[in-house]
Write a structure and sequence with these properties.
Lyase, Ornithine Decarboxylase, Chain A, domain 1, eight-stranded parallel beta barrel, binds ligand LLP, alpha/beta
């Protein structure tokens, strides 16, 4: 459930008409709903009521400071994958001891920042990484608390580009080497083994792959304990899907049951890293129709948003439901159109053969489920400035990232002296 609904014949974000916001900030823009963010975080947390669980919001899904801070106020921790994300999480007020640091390519300066901040856990993905972490920690006179991300070789049954738990993927340490790698890491100075970590992919709509991975992790924890390691943390990653196209993924409550059943009474702190589930349906991308063009074979609705603003359709064939801001009238019917942006490549297509209520130039539309992996994946391709982000809270809204002036973009380039 979200808080983008039709009221008085037009689409609202909570108590505000999106068209009003569009008048003030211009289009395109991302708009997030505080009530929806809060609701999703609370529903997810509730699935682990009574258990020793920490929800570390995966900052990569939407890293705007205001979004992170909204979640920090509800008690969220953070899963970060770069110095930039770590700094955002800390600045938004997430305590360091609720931050886990994931990613296959952490650099020494990033490790240093995290060690100095005193984060909860490094999720280490390789032997070379743990050796560098040991060196950095020793140099700083610190001890790095670690879990290894293990690769359970399970098929997440999701899009190939966001599937991470198969043996062929770059993520985690190979299952057959886990025992040896833990054994060797235990001898390294500056390293404290405390956990096991797994994350098998994103936008999962089936609980079986989770169950398979979690059961394997459970066995692994028993085995590692027998081998003498103290395991106090188990990080089960993120990945629970959201309804983009009407397919209803499992509810957080059922996901919670699967996790809690698999982990039983291990006596560990469970860590979760949901991203999309928290922010996905808490955001829309609002765009204006520039032209409606009749091609030789198809009708094109040309928007002022493009693939550089929302890349999911071009990159993953992602489906985003499109609503007109003006509430459609049954009598108007629908027509089949291709919804495209102004960028000069055919991949700049948001939807092909989509049934939409008739629209014309100047009308506004909203891409639903755009709160996750939308603004964060945007680029300035075609020298299009990043679009602004707005956060609504009841009757109030604030611009939480401004639209940069084109001049700012241009002045980032420097001319060498010979030109
Ligand atoms: N933890 C780790 C280690 C991750 O790599 C990810 C996502 C998450 C947690 C959060 O997963 P979520 O709960 O959001 O599924 N850009 C793609 C999704 C990439 C996901 C990357 N990792 C998309 O737009 O579909």
């Amino acid at each position: 459930m979200d808080h983008f609904n039709y009221q008085n014949g037009e689409l609202y974000a909570e108590n505000l008409p999106l068209a009003e916001i569009a008048k003030e900030v211009g289009t395109p823009f991302y708009c997030y709903s505080t009530a929806t963010l809060e609701r999703h975080f609370n529903v997810f947390s509730k699935a682990f009521d009574g258990a020793n669980a920490l929800v570390c919001y995966a900052v990569k899904a939407n890293s705007n400071l205001a979004v992170i801070k909204t979640l920090a106020k509800l008690g969220a921790g953070a899963d970060v994958v770069s110095e930039g994300e770590l700094r955002r999480a800390l600045e938004a007020g997430i305590p360091a001891n609720k931050i886990v640091f994931s990613g296959v390519g952490k650099k020494p300066h990033e490790m240093e920042l995290a060690l100095n901040a005193g984060i909860l856990q490094f999720n280490v993905e390789s032997e070379p990484e743990v050796r560098v972490l040991s060196e950095v920690a020793t140099r700083l006179g610190k001890v790095a608390p670690i879990a290894f991300r293990v690769n359970p070789d399970v098929d997440a049954k999701t899009h190939a580009k966001i599937s991470t738990g198969k043996a062929e993927n770059k993520f985690g340490v190979p299952w057959q080497d886990v025992s040896r790698i833990y054994g060797e890491a235990a001898t390294l100075p500056g390293i404290k083994i405390q956990g096991v970590d797994v994350h098998i992919g994103s936008q999962l709509t089936d609980l079986d792959p989770f169950n398979n991975a979690f059961m394997r992790v459970r066995e692994l924890v028993d085995q590692l304990r027998k081998e003498g390691h103290e395991i106090t943390q188990v990080d089960l990653g993120g990945g629970l899907g959201i309804p983009y196209d009407g397919t209803i993924p499992p509810a957080p409550e059922n996901y919670g049951q699967v996790a809690l059943q698999a982990m039983g009474n291990l006596g560990v702190q469970l860590i979760f890293e949901p991203g999309r589930l928290i922010v996905g349906n808490a955001g829309v991308l609002v765009s204006e129709v520039i032209y409606v063009k009749q091609g030789a074979e198809r009708k094109f609705v040309i928007l002022d948003a493009a693939m550089n603003d929302l890349i999911r359709p071009a990159m993953y064939d992602g489906y985003h439901h499109i609503d007109t801001i003006r509430q459609p009238n049954e009598a108007d019917g629908t027509e089949m159109v291709d919804v495209v942006g102004p960028v000069c490549e055919t991949g700049d297509t948001f939807a092909k053969g989509r049934e939409l209520p008739p629209v014309s130039a100047g009308d506004l539309v909203a891409f639903r489920s755009a709160g996750a992996y939308g603004a964060v994946m945007a680029s300035t391709y075609n020298t299009r400035p990043l679009v602004p982000e707005v956060l609504v809270n009841g009757d109030d809204f604030a611009v939480i990232r401004e639209r940069p002036a084109l001049e700012e973009l241009l002045k980032q380039d420097k001319l060498p002296e010979w030109l």
